[in-house]
Task: structure prediction
Amino acid sequence: MERNQSNMTDVRVEESHVDLAAKWIISSGIQSDQGGFFAWFNLQDKSYSYLYSEITGYGITSLLFLYKIFGEKAFIDKAEQAADWIISKSIHSCGGVKTRLYEDNKKADKRYCFTGGKIFSFDTGIVLYGIINLYKLTRKAKYLQISESLADFIIDKMHQQDGTLSPIYDAKIGETIETEDKWSNQQSGFHAKVSMGLADLYGIKRNDKYRDVAVKLCEYAVTTQEESGRFITDNTDKTTHLHPHCYAAEGLWYTGTLLKITSFIESANKATVWALENTATNGINELYYPLTKTFSTSQRSDIIAQVLRLGIIFSIGSKTDELKSVLLGYQYSGEDVGQKGGFLYDKESQCVNSWCTMFAMQALASYQHRDIILEKEQLTYLLI
Result:
């Protein structure tokens, strides 16, 4: 697969931490010439991973957010390239979004590869959110059309009577499935983030089915929240993984704000307070075990960025300075000049990670550009 090695001469980017991350997103090669985004770049063997539909959805929203900051049309052009890759390569005939496109099918994970037929509701929802926001900016009919198609797939094929989303649709057998081996393969509160694109689409089309399902996803998410504020993210052991915990809070805040449902916003605020109150001395630990009331020692930059971003959204400033400093410790500044500015997945990783960089870029930009956050009540703030 060819790599997109733009020299970014058409985009004004200075050398702050935010600007370096922006430059990495647009010119490092993490976005292929086809438009799709790779999951990461491996510093050791200088290779790119698979192309990833979910992350391409985040890529669209990231580029739109960067356009808001810098005002350069090149960001819109690249967002359209990403959306057009989704439309031409990633949409399955069933209507949902395929997950990962591997360069070598022999090395592909059959659970997630394009040819496996497994469609994830979360991936489809993230792509919906990116493309509907691209439509809001460009007003190109094809983006509205594909947004409606993705939303209808989510509602018709994945949404259940109890308000949940089935995590996986097996297109080969035409049925939804669920496994308990991982939080992302379960019906869970993190699907509240799928409500964001549905709520945006409702704002354009005023079709109540989009609003109703968005609300039901958020209502279900609230039922998975403990009094302490934490969301149970694994139905088997009742643990809380901070990554989907933040997804739930993000979806509740965004949809609650857009649809003016105060209880959703309060739930998201409560989740944010819990995460910040359990901040470790050097960041955010990844996993909480309720039986022992302890956390794992593992940390990831995407989670740190998510908690920092939520803290800024809710103006909880007591620990945001500390988290910002911790997050900057993950920004790559090594010998590979082309990867400078991207964010490592964790401290041991040799991979500069796409979604970690996107989340970190927005968290740092939100910290730096408080005027963007002040507009959040009008939802001009794009949540990556």
